[in-house]
Amino acid sequence: MSFLTLENVSHHYFSKNDYTKALQDISFSVKEGEFIALLGPSGCGKSTILSIVSGIMKHTSGKVLLNNKPVEKSKRDIGYMLQQDYLFPWQTILDNVLIGPTIQKNVDEEIKVEAKKLLNEVGLNDVENQYPSSLSGGMRQRVALVRTLITKPKILLLDEPFSALDYQTKLMLEDLVFQLLHAYKKTAILVTHDIGEAIAMSDRIIVMRANPGTIAKTFEVPIELRNEMPFLVRRHPKYQAIFDKVWEELNKNEEQKA
Amino acid sequence: MLDKEDQQLLNMHMQKLKRERKIVVIWQIFILIGFFGLWELASRMNWLDPLIFSSPSRVYNLLLEKFSDGTILTHTWVTLIETLLGFIIGTLLGIILATLLWSSTRFSKILDPYLVILNAMPKVALGPIIIVALGPGYVSIISMGAIISVIITTIVVYTGFREVDPNYEKVLKSFGATRWQCFKSAVFPATLPVMISTLKVNVGLSWVGVIVGEFLVSKVGLGYLIVYGFQVFDFTLVMAALILIACIAAIMYKVVEKIEGWLIKHTT
Question: Which of B48, B50, B82, B189 suits B98 as a labelling partner, its CA being 20 to 30 A distant?
Answer without folding.
Answer: B82
